[in-house]
Design goal:
It contains 17 helices and no strands. With 343 residues, it is mainly alpha-helical. Helix 2 packs parallel to helix 17 and helix 11 packs antiparallel against helix 14. The protein starts with 35 loop residues before the first helix and ends with a helix.
Length: 343
């Protein structure tokens, strides 16, 4: 996860601007805030709650049971969805808080934000702004992690169905989500891109299994597309952050590939999304009109690649990617409701 990002999609929505260094400029740190409202606001910024992209998984899952012709969600399904969403919020908050601690310790956040703090709103980084201490952030992360595990345990207890694959998926996600830049430090060992997509997949398909007891072809397709969303704006953040990532030893694809190779990689991911959308209809995994409904997403993805890669405006491409992911969610929900109407 990027030193300046919230975490996971979430995680990559606030990209760093390269030139990280191991020396942390102490001049950036102010005295920690003591006013309760100021500290509460700082904790909210630490949790990156403004980046909702992963949390939109709930909308996709909530609309999917109707698309398969199954019964409408009952009370147990609704409470399961609610408990799962609460767990998502807590676990992602823990992950991004730990990511901020890592960025603060290795100096990358200070380097990325210190040169243009006024422009990039230093308050996004409470440790650098001095509104929270490192100890504050660690306490918050541990509490959020514990709360997230409890919420997901409640979701499993309340779930109307517990297929083993879904239970294992939830357990694996609970373990791995906080490990991006802490513990296993997956983002520092070449798994950054896979991590961004896998979190999205884990927030859709296992929850769908708990709610319905099955894994339909359409649910699999939509989970895959949902996971690609954060990845397809994360790679633009990574392109912008090459110097900083190299300085702290984070081997993203953008760092490892040549500029041309990275452009091909991003283009291949964009083409994969389009191929999955078209292939789902051709193979009968989705209705024949599925690609037509998703045409706005395909068009937006083409514009993103044109602006971000071909024209070299990487940060604008990232912004288009964030908006495209949110458009994707709206379109998938619409498609599921259309399926329900024609069932």
């Amino acid at each position: 996860m990027k030193p300046s990002s919230p975490t996971s999609a979430v995680a990559v929505a606030e990209p760093a601007v390269g030139h990280a260094t191991a020396d942390r400029p102490r001049a950036l740190a102010l005295r920690p805030a003591r006013h309760p409202r100021t500290r509460l606001a700082a904790y909210l910024r630490l949790a990156k709650l403004g980046m909702v992209d992963y949390y939109l998984s709930l909308l996709v899952v909530a609309s999917l049971p109707a698309s398969s012709g199954g019964p409408a969600a009952d009370a147990s399904s609704a409470t399961t969805l609610g408990a799962f969403l609460a767990g998502e919020l807590c676990l992602v908050s823990a992950a991004v808080a730990l990511d901020d601690v890592t960025g603060y310790r290795d100096g990358s956040d200070a380097a990325n934000y210190g040169t243009d703090a006024a422009v990039r709103r230093l308050a996004r980084k409470p440790l650098l702004a001095g509104t929270l201490t490192e100890a504050d952030a660690l306490r918050f992360a541990r509490a959020a992690l514990a709360a997230g595990v409890l919420c997901w345990a409640a979701a499993l207890a309340l779930a109307p169905h517990r297929p083993m694959w879904a239970v294992l998926g939830v357990a694996a996600a609970a373990f791995l989500v906080p490990q991006y830049s802490w513990g296993l430090r997956l983002g520092h060992h070449g798994f950054q891109e896979l991590f961004l997509a896998a979190v999205g997949w884990a927030f859709v398909l296992p929850l769908y299994g708990l709610a319905t007891g099955e894994a339909t072809a359409l649910a699999g397709v939509e989970a895959f597309l949902f996971g690609l969303g954060p990845l397809l704006f994360g790679v633009y953040s990574n392109t912008n952050d090459i110097a900083g990532d190299r300085a702290v030893g984070r081997p993203t694809a953008a760092c490892l590939l040549s500029p041309r190779g990275n452009a091909v990689f991003i283009g291949a991911l964009s083409a994969l999304e389009t191929a999955v959308i078209a292939g789902a209809a051709v193979l009968g995994l989705a209705p024949w009109w599925f690609p037509l409904v998703l045409l706005p997403v395909t068009a937006a993805r083409t514009a993103q690649f044109t602006v971000g890669v071909l024209r070299g405006d990487v940060l604008r491409g990232r912004l288009i990617g964030i908006r495209t992911h949110r458009m994707l969610v709206a379109v998938l929900v619409t498609a599921n409701l259309l399926c329900a109407g024609t069932a």
